[in-house]
C-alpha cells in the first residue's frame, strides 16, 4: 500500500518545498505507522496459530486502538493491559478505550507502578497464567517485524526528497524509514517526549547513520501541550485542511516549520514529512481541553 504525497502550501515554506505523506488516510482509526507496525506481526501471529493478541498502552493510546481493531478484523481475541487502575470505571468517558472495547478488547487495568514492570519475565509469565497463551506485542508495537513494516512507508519516488521528517515515540517508525533511505537523504526525527534512551533504541534497529534527532519540540513531555501548539494545529488545519494530532504530528510539523523559518534547511531543500496518523487521539485530548476551558483542537469541519 502506498500513501499519496501532498504538497503543503503554508507560509514560511517559500524557500523549501514541503510535501506530506498522508499515512493518516490509511484508516480512520488504525492510521499511519500503527498499521505498518502491526502488518507483519499479525502475519506472524497467524503463522504461529495464535488466537490472542496481548499488548500494553495508556488511556488514549493509538496503539491500543489499532491492536483492538486489527485483532477484530483478523479474527483474534485481544487483551489490553492499560496503565492507570483508576480508568477501569471511566471506559465510557474515554473514546479510545470505548472504541477498543467495542472491537472486543478485554482490559486489565494496572497501577502505574505495576505497569512499569511490563517487560519483566515474571510479569509476562503471570499474564500467561491468567490469560492463557498469547502473541505479545510490546507497548507502542516496536519490534523487528514492526520495523519491517515501516520500511514500506517510503517508495522509489520518494528518492526525490533531501530530508524525511517524522515524529518519534519509541523509535520504531523512524528506524524503518532510515533503513529505506538512499545515500543522499537524511532523516530527522522529532521526539514527542523527553528521553535519554531514544538514540540507543534507534541504533538497535537502524542500519545506517543518515539520521538525527531534533529534541527541541517535545513541548515538555509526552502528551503535554500548550496554547501555542493548539493554535499552530488549528491554523495549519484552516490553511491546508490537513488534520494533525497534538501528541505526535502537531509537534513535529511545528518543529519543521520553525526550523524552516530559522534557516536550518539549505535553500531549495525538498522536504517530505510523514503524517503518521493519530487523529483518533484528538477526541480524548479535546475532552481534557474542554474541562479546562481551553481552546479545542480543530481537525474536522
Ligand atoms: C505511535 C506514533 C508515533 C511514534 O511511533 P514510534 O514508532 O513509536 O516512534 C508517531 N506518530 C503517531 C501518530 C503515532 O501514533
UniProtKB/TrEMBL annotation:
The modification N6-(pyridoxal phosphate)lysine is found at residue 34. It comes from Flavobacterium luteum. The keyword Transport does not apply. Pfam families: PALP (PF00291). One of its GO terms (molecular function) is D-cysteine desulfhydrase activity. Residues 15-277 form the Tryptophan synthase beta chain-like PALP domain. Keywords: Pyridoxal phosphate. InterPro entries: ACCD_DCysDesulf (IPR027278), TrpB-like_PALP (IPR001926), TrpB-like_PALP_sf (IPR036052). This is 1-aminocyclopropane-1-carboxylate deaminase/D-cysteine desulfhydrase.
Amino acid at each position: 500500500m502506498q500513501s499519496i504525497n501532498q504538497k503543503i502550501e503554508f507560509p514560511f515554506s517559500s524557500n523549501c518545498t514541503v510535501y506530506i505523506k498522508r499515512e493518516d488516510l490509511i484508516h480512520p482509526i488504525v492510521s499511519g505507522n500503527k498499521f505498518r507496525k502491526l502488518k507483519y506481526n499479525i502475519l506472524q501471529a497467524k503463522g504461529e496459530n495464535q488466537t490472542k493478541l496481548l499488548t500494553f498502552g495508556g488511556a488514549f493510546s493509538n496503539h491500543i486502538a489499532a491492536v483492538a481493531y486489527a485483532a477484530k478484523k483478523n479474527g483474534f481475541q485481544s487483551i489490553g493491559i492499560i496503565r492507570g487502575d483508576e480508568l477501569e470505571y471511566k471506559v465510557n468517558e474515554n473514546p479510545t478505550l470505548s472504541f477498543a472495547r467495542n472491537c472486543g478488547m478485554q482490559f486489565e487495568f494496572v497501577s502505574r507502578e505495576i505497569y512499569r514492570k511490563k517487560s519483566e519475565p515474571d510479569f509476562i509469565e503471570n499474564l500467561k497464567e491468567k490469560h492463557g497463551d498469547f502473541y505479545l506485542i510490546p507497548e507502542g508495537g516496536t519490534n523487528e517485524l514492526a520495523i519491517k513494516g515501516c520500511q514500506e512507508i517510503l517508495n522509489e519516488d520518494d528518492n526525490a526528497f533531501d530530508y524525511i521528517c517524522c515524529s518519534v515515540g519509541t523509535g520504531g517508525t523512524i528506524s524503518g524509514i532510515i533503513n529505506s533511505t538512499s545515500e543522499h537523504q537524511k532523516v530527522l526525527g522529532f521526539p514527542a517526549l523527553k528521553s535519554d534512551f531514544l538514540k540507543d533504541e534507534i541504533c538497535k534497529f537502524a542500519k545506517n547513520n543518515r539520521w538525527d534527532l531534533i529534541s527541541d519540540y517535545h513541548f515538555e513531555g509526552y502528551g503535554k501541550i500548550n496554547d501555542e501548539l493548539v493554535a499552530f494545529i488549528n491554523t495549519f488545519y484552516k490553511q491546508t485542511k490537513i488534520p494533525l494530532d497534538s501528541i505526535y504530528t502537531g509537534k513535529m510539523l511545528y518543529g519543521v516549520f520553525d526550523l524552516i523559518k530559522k534557516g536550518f534547511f539549505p535553500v531549495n531543500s525538498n522536504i517530505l514529512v510523514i503524517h503518521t496518523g493519530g487523529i483518533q487521539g484528538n477526541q480524548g485530548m479535546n475532552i481534557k481541553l474542554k474541562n479546562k476551558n481551553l481552546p479545542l483542537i480543530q481537525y474536522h469541519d
